[in-house]
Amino acid sequence: MKVFIAADSAIMLESLLPILSDIPGLAVAGYASDETAVIEQIDALPHDAAILDIGLRQENKSRALLVAAF
């Protein structure tokens, strides 16, 4: 399973990446730290699931969540 991460906290990313890499069969497909990067990358990087930081810095919170959901 490939997971995409959307989080603007470096601490969160530094914590999540080693935890996720220790799970057999799971790989991080990519990550983004702001709304623009999420929108650009989420369709470009094949993934099966996404972990979204609901406090992500965004210009338009609804837009990033909708893009991530589809």
Description:
- This protein has 70 residues and is an alpha/beta fold.
- It has a single domain, classed as Response regulator (Rossmann fold, 3-Layer(aba) Sandwich).
- It has 3 helices and 3 strands, in the order βαβαβα.
- The protein has a 3-stranded parallel beta sheet, sandwiched between helices.
- Helix 1 (10-21) links the parallel strand 1 and strand 2.
- Helix 2 runs parallel beside helix 3 (61-69).
- The radius of gyration is 11 Å and the shape is flat.
- It starts with a strand and ends with a helix.
- How far is the N terminus from the C terminus? 17 Å
Count of domains? 1
Q: For the record, what is the CATH homologous superfamily label?
A: Response regulator
Strand order in space, largest sheet: 2-1-3
CATH architecture: 3-Layer(aba) Sandwich
What is the CATH top level name? Alpha Beta
Q: Compute the number of helices.
A: 3
Average residue-wise pLDDT: 81
Give the SSE string.
EHEHEH
Radius of gyration: 11 Å
- CATH topology category name: Rossmann fold
Helix content: 40-55%
Strand content: 15-25%
Low-confidence stretches: none
By DSSP, the count of extended strands is 3
Largest sheet: 3 strands, parallel
Shape: flat
Tell me the structural class: alpha/beta
What are the SSEs and their pairings?
Blueprint: E1 2-6, H1 10-21, E2 27-32, H2 35-41, E3 49-52, H3 61-69
Parallel strand pairs: 1-2, 1-3
Describe this protein with a few key phrases.
70 residues, alpha/beta, Rossmann fold, 3-stranded parallel sheet, 21% strand
